[in-house]
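[job 4417] fold queue: 2 targets
>>> target A
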Amino acid sequence: MFLSQGAHACADRKDFMASEYTIRDLASEFEVTTRTIRFYEDQGLLMPERRGQHRIFSLRDRIRLRLILRGKRLGFSLAEIREIIDMYDEQPGEVGQLEHFLEKLEMRRADLQEKLNDIEMTLSELDAVEAVCRQRLTDMKKGKAAE
């Protein structure tokens, strides 16, 4: 799903029927810098063909870039993203990839829920401290006015 969903989404879009892309094409489409794309290439996540000084990216690279960026937005590390994407080509293939990805999503959701609970508790504590401070300030001002 993680990889195949991107593949199906790409196949349905007529504006991206090209089979080759330059680094500028991808940077423009995904609104990232060429440096970002070169970084993902250096990490082995993208494997463009070299034609002289030029990098030529395939549809597969384009899909992988889309999935890398999606994974980053979801809060996954590059190692986790690589593991999920690479599972598509390994046994048990897409089934294993989907099962693994669902486990990762569940773990990510639990982590975010825990952080949300911590944030809500902290906000509640801030509200309580603020109320005490405001009351103390009000009392102090009333005391000065009475003098």
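>>> target B
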Amino acid sequence: MIKDGQIALRSIGEGDLEFLLLLYASTREPEKAMVAWPDEQWDQFMRMQFSLQHAQYMKNYENPSFDVILVNGVPAGRLYVNRKADDCRLIDIALLPEFHGRGIAGSLIGLLLQEADENGTSVSLHVEKNNPVRDYYLRLGFNVAEDKGVYDFMVRPVGGKDRRSGAV
């Protein structure tokens, strides 16, 4: 359940790029601690990496929705999904650190799984092998479909079993 507020989605726009950059950089903070770069160099690196990722996302999906997650009207994260006839790909979900632990991502993923089940599609995603959320995806009924090196490609079949409660 979502605590402390209402969530909504809205399509990203050009005016969101600085927010999306800030969000992207927030997901890379552990790496920043490992390099002794001056802030200016790190910021330039983040801008370059974000620009490359953003361009790749914008061009490589057939039917994407690129949304900003809003909590009480405040930008809190992003949810990127690509919907095809037979699969719903969770491209990316990320929240600013101050919005972690409120059930926001779990609620949105639950809605995505429900939508996919209603449409008779699987849900797929890539997740780093060392990301703690990987275990959460396993509990939601995702299975490792392919080892991609640092990442696992995971698929949840239509009506995949939620291993936490035994519910479908």
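[job 4417] complete. Note on B: The chain has five helices and seven strands.
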